[in-house]
Protein 1
Amino acid sequence: MINQVIELAERPDGQPSENNFRIKEIETPTTKDGEVLVQSKYISVDPYMRGRMRDEKSYMPPFEVNAPIQGGVVAEILESKSDNWREGDLVEGILSWQRIQTVRPELLRKVSPQVQPSSLALSTLGMTGLTAYFGLMDIGQPQKGETVVVSGAAGAVGGVVVQIAKIQGCRVVAIAGSDEKTTYLENELGADVALNYKTTTDMSEALKTACPEGVDVYFDNVGGEISDAVIPLINKFARIVLCGQIALYNETSIPHGPRVAPLLVKRSALMKGFIVTDYQNQIKEGVTALSGWYQQGLLKHQETVVEGFEKLPQAFLRLFTGEKLGKLVVQVN
Ligand SMILES: NC(=O)c1ccc[n+]([C@@H]2O[C@H](COP(=O)([O-])OP(=O)(O)OC[C@H]3O[C@@H](n4cnc5c(N)ncnc54)[C@H](OP(=O)(O)O)[C@@H]3O)[C@@H](O)[C@H]2O)c1
């Protein structure tokens, strides 16, 4: 069997490129007692992985140079030398960017055959859906009739946030980077207004018009100048959910923005960051809520599927150009 791995060849300086990755052929490992041999089916590319390319302490250790990139993978068990895990089972976990690998099953979760397509376990019913659910429901605490602004709204997390906020009865203002995305957000996901930040000349004015009663919840996936335009519009007791800051991930030094602390004081507002794994013990609650909405047709799933293991680096780079809709996954064939 052909086996291949993708490694980090060198750490990016600024915008990452394909040169930062190396694909190579390797031997397929032998399964030891207690292990399973798995074949990757879908591999997730996620913005947080950019942080792991830096040699910097964070909530996950940095990738090693000349070692495999790791991320969310849905895989099929080819061989099991562990009780309770059977050949043919689909599993999900943080694995290497590798076609076939051995793994200790404690690091895996089973993917129910009812999860169709199984890539949903990486997106709407998996990590990105749970990020949207816990960030919005626990920190954002959206109340019926409130205004929720979502940046990065046509992405994996943002698209789910928009829909959950609508389920909660909120007015939703969505921000994304193309007309195709804003049309999708208004026509398919039910956003009340969607703004294209790349073509809107004055975001502050556009947001004022879109949020006539101010902003109660800001779910921030992006940061930078988009947040600079949203935050001055917050209402008393507003909640700012800091989910991600992708606009800054490729910066070599963090640019200074407006100081928001005085406004947070004046508005008695909350600004809180989180990592989805903070909610590790509540995963069942999140999956139950998301699956329920999905089955009722209240939560739509949107994926951009790139075919081919060797396309992983290119797919990863598309997160920073925005050339995709919804969750970006690579199907390994
Ligand atoms: N806290 C957590 O536990 C957690 C978990 C998962 C994800 N996150 C964060 O949540 C955010 C969204 O993640 P995701 O998986 O849903 O990714 P995604 O939104 O599916 O993909 C990234 C999107 O970000 C937008 N973008 C890229 N560069 C930008 C820039 N300079 N300015 C504005 N927008 C830019 C692009 O869309 P446009 O076309 O709209 O520009 C792109 O499609 C990321 O910041 C990620 O790090 C956090």
Protein 2
Amino acid sequence: MNLLRKIVLFLLAGLVLSLSACGREAPKVPEGTIPVTVSFGAMEKLTKAIGGDAVSITVMVPDGTEPHDFEPRAEDMVKLSHSRLFVYNGMGMEHWAEKAIRGAGSPDLITVDASAHVPPLLLTDEEEREEHGAYDPHTWLGLREAKEEARAIRDGLIAASPKDRDLFMKNYESFAESLDRLQAEYQDRLEKAPRHELVTGHAAFGYLARDFGLTQESVEDAFATGEPPAKKLIELIEFCRAHHVKTIFTEETMDPALARTLATEAGAKAETLSTMEESSDESYLQVMEENLTKLDRAMNE
Ligand SMILES: [Zn+2]
């Protein structure tokens, strides 16, 4: 076989491979909608709030996987290459985002680092800094921060589909208004509450705690130090007892048995609080309303 034939065959093989990859992996997008890939559940909810029915959203991180711990696979990048827009939270939440964008190799892909203009919250806890870096990456759980992220997503969507500009502007305005209203509601119900100690599964509520004068302690931090965590755990139980904490919060991605055991030890009960790190059908506002109901109950009992 001469060299030219070899090269042609090699190119053909590559073409067949990439065609079959496209055929297999291209997500089915309803006619006329904008294909958007988002990193995880919270970005799905914020994108949905602005994009409405004009977007078809693919979530990259599968349920049951923490966005912090995810690594994109080849098929994730193929899927991403079919999207017009990629929305990720940033602030170190998805250390793999750059790799995924490069892997998609699509020059037309518009990317939104949603937290790019959010003033970051500096982490002071040593273990937290080790796990998450210098800044708290859970920006979307702050209501003002979520508004900033929704604005960045709005601008990304307008760049992806200029003809839908009015729709995205209108959706953003109404979403921003709802967030302001919710901020006032949180303020009203949490600031006057007799309790201010918030015990969570992992320390995801730093922005919220700062805004409403809560002290966050997390169950995961008590385990994060590695081998026998008994000392930290006893400290946490003592903290709960000393402050008469009646509710220990846990999350979708966490082993509920752990929170239950701890709650029993501390004389409290276990309750879930959503961090939206997983995908679900509820809207951003629905989740934050539900979280407020549970926080309100825990801080007022
Ligand atoms: Zn987290």
